[in-house]
Amino acid sequence: MAEERTGRAVVEQTCAACHTSGKDGAPKIGDVAAWTQHTKKGLAKLTESAIAGIGKMPAHAGQPDLSDLELSRAIAFMVSFGKAVDPKKPYASPTSMTGEQLVQSHCVNCHGDGKEGAPRIDDFNAWKPRLKKGMNGLVRSAISGHKAMPARSGMAQLSDTDLRNAVTYMVVQSATYKPRN
Fold first, then answer.
1. Positive or negative torsion for Cα 118, 124, 125, 129
2. Alpha-carbon torsion, ordered 37, 94, 71, 164, to 10 deg
3. At the N or C end, where does the chain have fewer CB atoms within 10 A?
4. How is residue 57 annotated by DSSP?
5. What is the per-residue burial (b if ≥16 Cβ within 10 Å, else e) of 88-111?
6. Cα separations (Å) of 87 from 36, 71, 72, 75?
7. What is the DSSP string of 122-179?
């Protein structure tokens, strides 16, 4: 599993593009009044907005491979003007649907029939090698993308929790699958 980036690294690599200049109304790094206004509802709400996208800021800051924890770290860095310690857990990881709902509405398009090598929902043997790095490794792979599957399955607004729920659902379904007679 890839090492989670620090808040400073995420800000320098991604957030600075808009938050240094205030592009499209983004609060500028160092603007106490602007950040005070944006944090009135709490860091969890601010993180939820960054995950889902808000105003002209796209979901996951336009970088779907950013984890919810990395976004939380970037927010902590910008809000504290670089003084906060990186959080160990995300401020928020909202869920917009259950794992089953996400699988039935989206994941089944590839994992139903094994499109482009995707492990099928009914084939636990196809999931076994992918589980060598554990569920965290498998979820991280869904976050950052793997082979033909784009980051966050092409749905940048999905939280890490949404992806974990969908992956867990598919693995459990594959392990307990019983063909109908």
1. positive
2. 180
3. C
4. B
5. eebbbbbeeeebeebbeebbeebb
6. 19, 10, 7, 10
7. T-HHHHGGGGGGHHHHHHHHHHH-BTTBPGGGG-TT--HHHHHHHHHHHHHHHHH---
Q: What is the mean pLDDT of residues 45-56?
A: 94
Q: Token pair for residue 110?
A: 């590839």
For residue 2, give every residue at least 6 positions away whose Cβ sits within 8 Å of its Cβ, in sequence order, or none.
Answer: 140, 144
**Structure confidence at residue 1 (pLDDT):** 42
The separation between CA 103 and the C-alpha centre of its own chain, rounded to angstroms, equals 16
Contact 121, 111 (CB under 8 A): yes
| pLDDT, tens digit (0-9, with 9 covering 90-100), for 151-165 | 999 999 999 999 999
pTM of the full structure: 0.87
Phi/psi at 110 (5° precision): -110, -40
Identify which of 9, 35, 10, 13 has the alpha carbon closest to the alpha carbon of residue 22: 35
Q: What does the DSSP 8-state code read for residue 54?
A: B
CA quadruple 14, 15, 21, 22: dihedral, nearest 10: 140
